[in-house]
């Protein structure tokens, strides 16, 4: 089980995580705005990964973002996302070590996914996936 959780974390953090600040839609794709509220504290940062089925739980996403936390929340935007099927995974990296910490196989840091599925065990792409078409999207992800 610990191996599954380790892979879960690796998907977001295997590469450099870069914040994006541009929020205008261009002809190259759509914007996906993600808001996470009620984060338990302002320690560390929040890391987001935008994944296809090919990258889900296998390393870095096709796009990655990071943000410091202010007043228990963050809002970030993936820009220029091309049409397709994706899933978003989010983690509160309280100690800024760019990985999920575990104790006895259980995650010690909060995490969530698009569609806010409630599941026991490792995250499933089928539960978190969504379609990007010709409109900008907004998600509220709950830890």
Keywords:
2 helices, Immunoglobulin-like, 37% strand, three-stranded mixed β-sheet, globular, disordered N terminus, 143 residues, mainly beta, five-stranded antiparallel β-sheet
Describe the structure.
This protein has 143 residues and is mostly beta strands. It has one domain: Immunoglobulin-like (Sandwich). The protein is built from two helices and ten strands, in the order αββββββββαββ. The strands form three sheets. Strands 2, 3, 5, 8 and 9 form a five-stranded antiparallel β-sheet that branches. A three-stranded mixed β-sheet has the order 4-1-10, with no helix packed on it. The N terminus is likely disordered.
Number of domains: 1
Instruction: Count the E strands.
Output: 10
| Annotated CATH topology | Immunoglobulin-like
Taken in chain order, the helices and strands follow as HEEEEEEEEHEE
**Radius of gyration, rounded?**
14 Å
Percent range for β-strand residues? 35-45%
Major sheet summary line? 5 strands, antiparallel
CATH class: Mainly Beta
Number of helices: 2
Instruction: Give start-end ranges of low-pLDDT stretches.
Output: 3-26
Look at the structure and give the mean pLDDT. 85
* CA distance, first residue to last residue: 20 Å
Helix content: 10-25%
Q: Find the structural class using helix and strand composition.
A: mainly beta
Q: Per the principal axes of the C-alpha atoms, what is the gross shape? A: globular
Under the CATH scheme, the architecture is Sandwich
């Amino acid at each position: 089980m610990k191996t599954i959780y380790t892979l879960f974390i690796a998907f977001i953090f295997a590469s450099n995580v870069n914040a994006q600040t541009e929020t205008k839609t261009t002809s190259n794709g759509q914007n996906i705005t993600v808001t996470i509220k009620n984060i338990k504290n302002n320690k560390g940062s929040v890391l987001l990964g935008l994944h296809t089925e090919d990258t889900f739980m296998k390393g870095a996403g096709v796009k990655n973002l990071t943000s410091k936390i202010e007043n228990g929340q963050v809002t970030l935007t993936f820009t220029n996302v091309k049409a397709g099927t994706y899933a978003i995974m989010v983690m509160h990296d309280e100690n800024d070590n760019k990985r999920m910490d575990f104790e006895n196989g259980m995650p010690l840091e909060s995490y969530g996914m698009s569609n806010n599925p409630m599941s026991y065990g490792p995250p499933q792409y089928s539960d978190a996936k969504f379609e990007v078409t010709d409109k900008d999207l907004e998600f509220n992800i709950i830890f």
